[in-house]
Design a protein that fits this description.
The chain is mainly beta and 1015 residues long. Helix content is 8%, strand content 54%.
C-alpha cells in the first residue's frame, strides 16, 4: 500500500506539461473522434420522406430528431456530433442536456443523474446493450464511495460514445429495473462508417482556482475490408487535470441539550465577565429537551437553557480538496457480415478513472464532543437568531485540529460482449447477446493524520454571512498561533510515564486535555460484476404485426470491503478499529513527529489563515505507515472484522431470470397511422446476501437467501393525427430493486437488550405504476417542439427505521440466540433498526422542449439556433423523522414528515444558443437545477440534508481551417458555481433552521484550447 512520494509530486506535473505540449504541437494535426457522425450513412428506413443530410452540429441534431421520430416509445436521443459539440468533460454532463435529466457533481464534474425526479438508484444503464455498473469514490459531503445501484458517469469521457438514448417509457422487451429511465450508451462500431476513417484531437487546459494546467486527447481509427463484410475499430480517450475545491464546512449542526450531547459547554461569561457554569443534563429520552424531573439536577433555565438548546456548528472548519484526476478509456470493435442474413459484432471496452485526493482541514473539534472526562469549552459571548442557531460566538478552552487526509482512488471498468443477429428465413429473426462487465473501485489508501492544539483561548466563529463565515483560531497556552509549530502537537492522549504492553489494553486513564491525534488507516473497495446472456426472436406476421419473444439470464455480484487499523480489547474479545496516536501502538511515530513538528509539516493558506498541517508524503516515506505491518514506528496492522469496519464488508449475488412476449403493431385507424407495442415481462429474482453480525465476543457470518417474482405489463401507443404531429401514450408496471448494500445482513445484535441493527435481506423492490403522455410536433427536419405529462404511483419507498419484530421473522439463524438468559427463541421480540419498505406516494410532472435553427431570420442571423427544455416535478413521500420505543409494551411511536423524494429538484431546465456557418461554430449552454433534499435523518438531530440550486454555464467555439483541421476553445463552469449543501431542522428545542451551512465549496473555471483532425 506504500506510495512513492516522488511519483505523487513530480509525475503529475510531468504529465500536465506533456499534455500541454502535445496540445500545442499537434494542434494543427488533430480533430475530435465524435465528428464521425459526418461520415455516417443515412438511416436505411427514414421515418419520413426528408433526406437526412448530416452536416456538423445542426446535422447531428437533425439525426437525433429523426431517431426520436422513429421510436414507438418515449425517448430522447443524442448523436455523436451532438455529444462532442456540447462542452462536456464526461457523459453525465452530456446527458444533462436531455429534458427531465439533472445531474449532481463531485470534484467539479458531473457524476450521477436524476431523471424526472428519480435518483440514479432508480435508473438502469446499458452499455452496448448490456446492463453495467460503474462506481467511483467522492468527497464525504457528496456521498463518498458509491455502494448503490447508481451509475457514476464521470468514469467515461463523452468521446468514446456515438449515441445516447434515454428511454423514459418501458416496453416488455426492455429489461426491468428502472423507475426513472433506461439509459443506453453505444460505442462506435466499424459498420457505422463507410470505409477508412481516422480522427484525433488534443487540447490543453487551465483551471483558474488550482492554477494548474492539464489536457485531454482522443484518437479513433476504423476500416472495412472484403467488400465491406469485415470491419474493425479502435478508439482511445485520455485526459488529466487537477481540480481544487475549497470552502467552509460544519459537518452538521447540533444542540447540547440532550443526553447524547451532554458537556459541550462548561459555562458562559455574562456581560459583567462573571462566569456561570452550565450543569450537565442527566435525563433520559426527551427529558433534557423539555423539563428535567430529576431533583438532583433540575432543568436548565434562563441563559443556560437558551445556550444549550441553540444549534451550534458540530465541527466548524475550512477545507480544501486537491484532486489529481486521470481518465483513460479505450474501445475496440470487430464486425463481420459473411452474408446478408448474418451480422456478428464483438465489442470490448476498458476504462480507468483515477482521482487521488488530498484534503486539508482547519477545524475546531471541541463542539463535537460529549461525555465525562472531556474538556469543557466556555463561552465568552454569543448571538442566537430567531431559528435557534448560535451563529456567532467567542470561546475559550477550544481544541483545534489541522487535518490532512489522502485518498488514492481508482476505478477500473472492463466489458466484453458478443452479438449475433441472424435472419432465419424471410420473416423470422434471432438476436443473441452475451457479455460480462466488471467495475472495481479501489481506495487502497485512505489515510488521515492531524496536529492538535489544546485549550486554545479566544477562538471565534461568525456565520453572520452564512456562506462566508469568519474564523479566528486564537492562541495556544504557549502563546503561539496556527502558523507556528509551537501551536501544534501530535498527542497520544496518554501520560508521558505510562507503560503498556503491545497487544493488551492496560493504558492508564488519560491526563491530557482532549482527544488523541489521529492515525486513521481505512482502505476499502467496491466490486460490481455483471454477466448476461439473452436471446430474442422477432417474427414479422405481416406488414402490420410483429411478434417478439425472448429470455435472458443475468447475474450481478457485489463485493464491498473495508479495513481498519486494529486493537484487540480484552474486555470484549472483539477487535476494535484504533485511530488514536496512542503510545501503545505508535511510540516510535509519536517521538518522531513531536520531535520536529516543523519538519513534518507543510504550510497551507485557507480563507486568510495560514497554518501547518501534516506532510503525509514525508511521514509515509519515513515511517511506511501503509505497510500493513508492525515496524519501528508503530503497529499498522489492519483487519476487516473489527467493530467499525465490518459493516462495509458484505457480499451479495443477484440472479435475474426473465422472459417476455410482445406484439408490435402498425396500422391506420381513421386514416391516422397508429403504431406501438403491447407485452408482458415476467422476472424471477434470486438473492443471496452475506454479512458479519457482531455478537458479544464473536463475529457471526450470516447468509440469507430469498426469491420473488414480478409480472410487468407494458403498453406504448403512438398516433400520428397530422403529418408531423405525434401523440404518444405509455403505461407500465415497473420495479427498481433495492441496493445490494442495503440487502446484506451485516450489523450487530445485543441479546441482553434485545436490539438488532442490520441490513434487510427481505426488502421488496420499489414498485410503481407509470403513465406518460407526450405530444411531439416536428415542424421541419431540424425542428421539434414537445410537451410531456408523466405520473408514477410509487407503491413503496425504502427508509431505515426501528420497529419490533419477532426474531423468527428476520430469517437469521437461531444460533444467534444461544446462551441467552432467560432463554430466547424465534418468538422473542427484538427492536430492529434496518431499512424497511415504507408507504410511497405519487410523483407527477411535465416537460417542455424546443429546438429550432433560426433559418427564418435574415443575413447572418439565420446561422443561429436554440435548444431549450424545462421540467417540473412534484411528489410527496411520508418519511419517518423520529421514533420512540417502549421496551415494556414493545411499541414504537413514529413522528412523520411529508416531503419530496430525495434528490428530486422541483424545477430543472437547460438551454443552448448556437451559431454555425461553414467555418465558424459557437454555443453557450446553461443548465439549472433547483434545490433538493439528499439525505433523511443525517444525524445530530437534523431532519434532512439538502443542496441548494445550481446554474452552470459552459461554452464552446470552433474554427474550421479546412476540411480536415478545426481549432477548438471550451470554457467550463464559467460562473464558478458553488456546491451549496445545507442542514434542515425542526426540533422540540425550537431549532427551525432550514438552510444551515453544511458545505459550500467551488472548483473554479476550466478552459480548454486545442485542435481536431479528421480524415
Amino acid at each position: 500500500m506504500s506510495t512513492d512520494s516522488t511519483n505523487t509530486t513530480i509525475a503529475p506535473k510531468f504529465r500536465r506539461r506533456a499534455l500541454w505540449a502535445l496540445g500545442v504541437s499537434c494542434g494543427a494535426l488533430l480533430t475530435a473522434a465524435p465528428v464521425f457522425a459526418q461520415t455516417a450513412p443515412a438511416p436505411a428506413k427514414p421515418a419520413d420522406n426528408d433526406v437526412v443530410v448530416v452536416t456538423g452540429f445542426r446535422g447531428s441534431l437533425q439525426t437525433a430528431i429523426s431517431a426520436k421520430k422513429k421510436e414507438d416509445m418515449i425517448v430522447d436521443v443524442i448523436k455523436s456530433e451532438d455529444i462532442a459539440q456540447f462542452p462536456d468533460l464526461n457523459l453525465a454532463e452530456s446527458i444533462q442536456r436531455i429534458p427531465g435529466v439533472a445531474i449532481d457533481r463531485d470534484g467539479g464534474e458531473g457524476r450521477s443523474i436524476t431523471v424526472r425526479g428519480l435518483n440514479s438508484d432508480f435508473s438502469r444503464v446499458r452499455l452496448n446493450g448490456l446492463e453495467a455498473q460503474a462506481t467511483t469514490g467522492g468527497k464525504d459531503s457528496s456521498g463518498g464511495a458509491n455502494r448503490g445501484r447508481g451509475f457514476d458517469f464521470n468514469v467515461f469521457a463523452s468521446d468514446l460514445f456515438n449515441s445516447i438514448t434515454i428511454r423514459k417509457s418501458l416496453s416488455a422487451e426492455i429489461e426491468e429495473g428502472s423507475l426513472g429511465a433506461t439509459v443506453d450508451l453505444q460505442t462506435a462500431r466499424p459498420f457505422d462508417y463507410k470505409g477508412f476513417t481516422m480522427a484525433a484531437s488534443a487540447q490543453g487546459s487551465y483551471n483558474d482556482l488550482s492554477k494548474t494546467d492539464g489536457g485531454r486527447g482522443s484518437f479513433l481509427i476504423s476500416n472495412r475490408w472484403a467488400d465491406g463484410k469485415l470491419g474493425a475499430l479502435f478508439s482511445v480517450a485520455y485526459g488529466h487535470n487537477t481540480v481544487q475545491e475549497e470552502g467552509p464546512n460544519t459537518t452538521r449542526w447540533e444542540n447540547a441539550y440532550s443526553p447524547s450531547n451532554i458537556g459541550r459547554f462548561a459555562g458562559y461569561y455574562d456581560s459583567s465577565n462573571v462566569f456561570h457554569p452550565i450543569a450537565q443534563c442527566t435525563g433520559t429520552g426527551g427529558a433534557c429537551n423539555t423539563t428535567e424531573t430529576n431533583t438532583a439536577n433540575p432543568a436548565l433555565t434562563g441563559d443556560a437553557a437558551t445556550i444549550s438548546r441553540a444549534l451550534h456548528p458540530r465541527i466548524p472548519r475550512y477545507s480544501r480538496f486537491v484532486t489529481d484526476q486521470t481518465r483513460l478509456g479505450m474501445t475496440g470493435s470487430f464486425q463481420m457480415r459473411p452474408n446478408p442474413d448474418t451480422l456478428i459484432s464483438l465489442d470490448a471496452m476498458y476504462a480507468e478513472f483515477t482521482a487521488n485526493r488530498d484534503e486539508y482541514d482547519l477545524e475546531a473539534i471541541s463542539f463535537s464532543r460529549a461525555g465525562a472526562g472531556m474538556p469543557k469549552t466556555t463561552i465568552r459571548n454569543y448571538a442566537i437568531d430567531s431559528e435557534g442557531t448560535m451563529y456567532k460566538g467567542t470561546f475559550d478552552n477550544v481544541d483545534i485540529r489541522a487535518e490532512h487526509r489522502y485518498d488514492a482512488l481508482k476505478t477500473t471498468f472492463k466489458q466484453v460482449n458478443l452479438g449475433w443477429d441472424q435472419n432465419l428465413g424471410e420473416k423470422l429473426k434471432m438476436k443473441v447477446l452475451l457479455g460480462a462487465s466488471d467495475s472495481f473501485q479501489g481506495n487502497p489508501e485512505q489515510t488521515t493524520f492531524d496536529w492538535d492544539s489544546y485549550n486554545v483561548q479566544g477562538y471565534s466563529y461568525d456565520f453572520t454571512d452564512s456562506r462566508h463565515p469568519v474564523f479566528n483560531y486564537g492562541t495556544s497556552p504557549t502563546g503561539c498561533t496556527v502558523d507556528q509549530a509551537c501551536y501544534w502537537s501530535f498527542s497520544p492522549n496518554t501520560p508521558a510515564n505510562s507503560t503498556s504492553t503491545p497487544g493488551t489494553n492496560n493504558l492508564t486513564t488519560s491526563t491530557t486535555t482532549g482527544d488523541a491525534s489521529l492515525i486513521r488507516l481505512r482502505p476499502q473497495s467496491v466490486d460490481n460484476k455483471f454477466f448476461t446472456a439473452k436471446i430474442d426472436f422477432i417474427y414479422e406476421l405481416n406488414d402490420s404485426l410483429v411478434f417478439k419473444a425472448g429470455t435472458s439470464k443475468k447475474q450481478y455480484d457485489f463485493l464491498s470491503t473495508e479495513y481498519g487499523r486494529v486493537t484487540y480489547v480484552p474486555a470484549s474479545g472483539l477487535p476494535g478499529r484504533d485511530e488514536s496516536a496512542s503510545t501503545l501502538y505508535s511510540a516510535g511515530i509519536n517521538a518522531l513527529l513531536n520531535g520536529d513538528i516543523a519538519k513534518y509539516s507543510q504550510s497551507i493558506s485557507l480563507a486568510g489563515n495560514t497554518f501547518l498541517t501534516p506532510n503525509l508524503d514525508l511521514i509515509r516515506s519515513t515511517t511506511d505507515f501503509t505497510c500493513g505491518c508492525k515496524n519501528a514506528y508503530g503497529t499498522f496492522t489492519l483487519d476487516n472484522t473489527n467493530s467499525s469496519s465490518r459493516a462495509n464488508n458484505r457480499t451479495a449475488t443477484e440472479k435475474d431470470t426473465s422472459s417476455y412476449v410482445q406484439v408490435d403493431f402498425h396500422h391506420d385507424v381513421f386514416n391516422m397511422p397508429v403504431r406501438g407495442n403491447l407485452g408482458v415481462r415476467i422476472v424471477k429474482t434470486d438473492e443471496t446476501s452475506t454479512g458479519l453480525i457482531g455478537k458479544g465476543t464473536t463475529n457471526v457470518l450470516t447468509t440469507i437467501n430469498r426469491s420473488y417474482t414480478d409480472t410487468l405489463p407494458a403498453l406504448n401507443v403512438s398516433i400520428q393525427p397530422l403529418n408531423n404531429l405525434y401523440v404518444r401514450f405509455a403505461a407500465a408496471k415497473t420495479m427498481a430493486r433495492p441496493t445490494l448494500q442495503s440487502l446484506t445482513p451485516g450489523g450487530s445484535i445485543t441479546t441482553s437488550s434485545q436490539t438488532l441493527s442490520v441490513g434487510n435481506p427481505y426488502l421488496n423492490p420499489v414498485r410503481a405504476n407509470t403513465a406518460d403522455l407526450s405530444i411531439e410536433w416536428y415542424m421541419d427536419k431540424e425542428s421539434l417542439f414537445s410537451a410531456s405529462l408523466f405520473q408514477k404511483d410509487i407503491k413503496s419507498y425504502i427508509q431505515s427505521t426501528a420497529t419490533y419484530v419477532p426474531f423468527g421473522d428476520l430469517g437469521f439463524d437461531s444460533s444467534l440466540l444461544s446462551g441467552t438468559s432467560p432463554a430466547q427463541d424465534n418468538s422473542t421480540l427484538y427492536l430492529v433498526t434496518q431499512p424497511i419498505n415504507t408507504p410511497g406516494g405519487t410523483l407527477k410532472g411535465y416537460e417542455l422542449s424546443m429546438q429550432k435553427p433560426f433559418t427564418f431570420l435574415p443575413g447572418f442571423l439565420k446561422h443561429f439556433g436554440g435548444i431549450v427544455n424545462y421540467t417540473h416535478v412534484e411528489s410527496n413521500i411520508k418519511y419517518v423523522t423520529a421514533s420512540t420505543s417502549n421496551a415494556t409494551t414493545h411499541t414504537v411511536t413514529y413522528t412523520y414528515r411529508t416531503a419530496p423524494l430525495l434528490n428530486l429538484s422541483p424545477e430543472s431546465w437547460n438551454t443552448t444558443l448556437y451559431y454555425e456557418d461553414s467555418r465558424f461554430s459557437a454555443r453557450v449552454s446553461v443548465a439549472h437545477r433547483s434545490e433538493y433534499e439528499s439525505i433523511i435523518l443525517p444525524g445530530s438531530g437534523a431532519d434532512f440534508q439538502g443542496k441548494n440550486g445550481t446554474t452552470n454555464v459552459d461554452t464552446q467555439a470552433t474554427w474550421k481551417l479546412n476540411k480536415n483541421f478545426t481549432l477548438v476553445f471550451e470554457g467550463l463552469n464559467l460562473t464558478d458555481q458553488y456546491d451549496d449543501r445545507n442542514d434542515q431542522y425542526n426540533t422540540p428545542q425550537g431549532n427551525t433552521g432550514q438552510n444551515l451551512l453544511l458545505d459550500y465549496s467551488h472548483p473554479g473555471r476550466t478552459y480548454y484550447f486545442g485542435a481536431r483532425y479528421k480524415y
